[in-house]
């Protein structure tokens, strides 16, 4: 007979065992519920991955078009090559075939086919010819899947705007990256049952179709872009500059009609193996970088002074070659001085003393209100990555000498896009528009998904001030430093600029940014052009000599293309640009010159591209550029 104490111990042990078993069953029950309700989907997917093999169906990326419908970025058929090692029955022949077709070593091919994985990638985006040679070998376990490779019909044109994609077709920079959400489609799949070795069986198949990406239509005008490309390349060749750039905008909407920079790179041959070079060539400095605008900023000092009423028709200024402000002597660009002059003469002469006087008359508060109203110190909100807001000194830190320097375009830094956007407001009647590239988004079926409307973001000056400013700036081109931008038969207004560059906080000796910004037709402005020559070589560095002629060349081509009334229009003779790509340099130059064209060349050897491209309409006497094999 057990004692009362012994029974209690036994019962305690049984109770503990019962509780433990009950607890374990509860844990199992909870685990089963978790597997069914929480992990069920993942486990089902993992099981499917083992018993199904998926054949990817690539979605075509959306196309990018210019405003006239010209294709700027599209797709060409390509193939990805895969292997299922367990299904490869002739490994030696397969390795040899793949080595020859894909340009890989025999050892690398054999290693790929020996991997203990259900599927390995052998090559991406190979040509149809390569895929055909592989398929034609009839190799079990090796297959080619149709996909797409990005193609850019115009090569280097708009390279810093369009950007490029990676090998998977994802946008990396430029508009390809910024609007990747529209351009990217959704890939589809073809699922097929497979055995444990990865070999397809005769079981069920499941088909999920691919959805194509949307198409973009830009504000870019292909013809105007061609004029800008031709001008920057020719200027670069003439002045041996660090770089040359041009922007053309529609001052009535803010739409960007052209943006060109040289040196550039071919979008079909992106230098991916040299990251430093790629970053240098692909960076759109017209949007991301700042510079001292120099005398082009005098446009806004003039506008602010006219708007505030601190200057009138009878105002007189005297320039003795310098002004002393806060005990600091600030020189005019003409050290001998300009003498006595009125406002119109001061603008035509680009006299620094005049603009120092205007800035000081305005005072810091009023001048800064005008600067901010024109958008300086703030991003324009253009649809592009990496935009800079520029550099504007804090108002509370500004001394009179700083204010005087800002008046003629020093002690302030702007982006080229900021500058031309503000010029548009100065001459279009006083409305500041947000600049933009994207005009419209369409689905693959052609339905409009998004349409951009011009966006007015401010009104820095009145129509009356804008009209007076246009009159003054026409005088700069007709009688002043911008005369080399003049075009017979049309009225152009504008302003030149020459600014010293800074390196490590100090003036860089002999380094300048030369520029010209103008608009036409001056009576009813439609387009603004900003042309920049960065570090022209030699002693000719004034914007009036280096930049203005090329801006005038762009205006001349626009005038021809849009049939603006010109006195010499009937004397123009047009021809079709000859196709000299692939021709030796000497023979190409001879053919182009025989056609009546003025030829600029870069590099030597065979011609790899021309600006304008073959087939475009050009006027006899126009400057064309032939880029040869070893050009950089």
Walk me through what this model shows:
It is built from 20 helices and 28 strands. With about 625 residues, it is an alpha+beta fold. Helix content is about 35%, strand content about 25%. Helix 12 (about 300-310) packs across helix 14, helix 12 packs across helix 17 and helix 14 (about 350-375) packs across helix 15. Strands 2, 3, 4, 5, 8, 18 and 19 form a 7-stranded mixed beta sheet that branches. Strands 10-9-23-22-21 form a 5-stranded antiparallel beta sheet, sandwiched between helices. It has a 3-stranded antiparallel beta sheet with strand order 1-6-7.
Outline of this structure?
The chain has 632 residues and is an alpha+beta fold.
Radius of gyration: 33 Å
Strand content: 25-35%
Q: Which stretches are low in confidence, meaning pLDDT under 50 for 5 or more residues running?
A: none
Helix content: 25-40%
Number of strands: 28
Shape: globular
What's the N-to-C terminus distance?
A: 107 Å
- Main sheet attributes: strand count, strand direction, barrel closure: 7 strands, mixed
Q: Helical segment tally?
A: 20
Mean pLDDT over all positions = 88
Chain-wise SSE layout:
Elements: H1 4-37, H2 40-51, E1 52-57, E2 64-65, E3 71-83, H3 91-102, H4 106-113, E4 120-126, H5 128-136, E5 142-151, H6 159-162, H7 174-178, H8 180-183, E6 188-194, E7 200-208, E8 215-218, H9 222-239, E9 243-250, E10 256-262, H10 275-282, H11 285-288, H12 298-308, E11 316-319, E12 322-325, E13 328-331, E14 339-342, H13 343-349, H14 352-373, E15 391-392, H15 400-407, E16 412-413, H16 416-427, E17 432-433, E18 438-442, E19 448-451, E20 456-458, H17 463-479, E21 493-503, E22 506-520, E23 527-534, H18 543-546, H19 548-561, E24 574-576, H20 585-594, E25 598-602, E26 607-611, E27 617-619, E28 623-628
């Amino acid at each position: 007979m057990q004692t009362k104490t012994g029974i209690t111990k036994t019962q305690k042990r049984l109770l503990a065992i019962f509780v433990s078993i009950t607890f374990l069953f509860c844990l199992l029950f909870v685990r089963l519920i978790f597997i069914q309700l929480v992990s069920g989907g993942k486990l089902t997917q993992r099981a499917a991955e083992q018993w199904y093999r998926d054949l990817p169906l690539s979605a075509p990326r959306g196309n990018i078009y210019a405003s006239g419908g010209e294709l700027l970025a599209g797709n060409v058929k390509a193939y990805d090559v895969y292997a299922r090692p367990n299904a490869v029955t002739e490994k030696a022949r397969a390795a040899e075939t793949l080595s020859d077709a894909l340009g890989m070593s025999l050892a690398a091919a054999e290693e790929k086919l020996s991997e203990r994985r259900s599927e390995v990638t052998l090559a991406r985006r190979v040509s149809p010819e390569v895929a055909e040679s592989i398929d034609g070998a009839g190799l079990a376990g090796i297959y080619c899947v149709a996909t797409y490779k990005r193609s850019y019909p115009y090569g280097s044109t708009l390279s810093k705007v369009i950007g490029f994609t990676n090998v998977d077709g994802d946008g990396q920079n430029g508009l390809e990256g910024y609007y990747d959400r529209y351009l990217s489609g959704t890939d589809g799949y073809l699922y097929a049952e497979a055995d444990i070795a990865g070999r397809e069986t005769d079981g069920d198949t499941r088909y999920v179709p691919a959805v194509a990406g949307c198409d973009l239509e830009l504000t870019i005008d292909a013809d105007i872009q061609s004029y800008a490309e031709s001008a920057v390349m020719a200027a670069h060749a003439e002045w041996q500059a660090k770089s040359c750039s041009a922007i053309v905008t529609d001052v009535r909407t803010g739409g960007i009609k052209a943006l060109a920079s040289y040196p550039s790179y071919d979008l079909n041959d992106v230098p991916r193996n040299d990251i430093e070079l790629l970053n240098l060539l692909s960076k759109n400095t017209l949007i991301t970088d700042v510079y001292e605008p120099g005398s082009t900023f005098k446009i806004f000092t003039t506008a602010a002074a006219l708007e505030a009423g601190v200057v009138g028709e009878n105002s007189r200024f005297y320039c003795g070659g310098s002004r002393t402000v806060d005990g600091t002597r600030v020189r005019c660009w003409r050290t001998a001085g300009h003498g006595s002059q009125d406002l119109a003469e001061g603008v035509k002469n680009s006299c620094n003393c005049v603009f120092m006087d205007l800035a000081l008359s305005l005072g810091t508060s009023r001048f800064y209100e005008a600067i901010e109203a024109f958008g300086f110190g703030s991003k324009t909100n253009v649809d592009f990555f990496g935009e800079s807001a520029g550099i504007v000194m804090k108002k509370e830190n500004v001394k009179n000498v700083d204010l005087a320097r800002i008046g003629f375009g020093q002690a302030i830094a702007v982006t080229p896009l900021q500058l031309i956007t503000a010029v548009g407001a100065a001459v279009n009647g006083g409305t500041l528009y947000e600049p933009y590239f994207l005009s419209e988004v369409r689905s693959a079926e052609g339905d409009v998904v998004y349409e951009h409307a011009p966006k007015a973001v401010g009104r820095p000056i009145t129509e009356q001030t804008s009209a007076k400013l246009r009159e003054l700036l026409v005088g700069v081109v007709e009688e002043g430093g911008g005369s080399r931008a003049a075009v017979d038969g049309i009225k152009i207004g504008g302003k030149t600029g020459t600014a010293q560059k800074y390196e490590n906080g100090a003036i860089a000796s002999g380094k300048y940014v030369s520029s010209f910004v103008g608009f036409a037709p001056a009576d009813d402005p439609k387009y603004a052009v900003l042309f920049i020559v960065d570090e022209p070589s030699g002693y000719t560095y004034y914007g009036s000599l280096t930049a203005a002629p090329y801006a005038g060349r762009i205006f001349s081509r626009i005038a021809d293309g849009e049939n603006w009334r010109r006195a010499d229009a009937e004397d123009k003779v047009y021809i079709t640009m000859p196709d000299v790509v692939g021709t030796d340099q000497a023979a190409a130059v001879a053919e182009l010159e025989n056609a009546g064209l003025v030829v600029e060349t870069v590099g030597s050897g065979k011609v790899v591209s021309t600006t304008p491209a073959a087939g475009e309409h050009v006027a006899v006497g126009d400057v064309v550029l032939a880029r040869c094999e070893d050009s950089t």
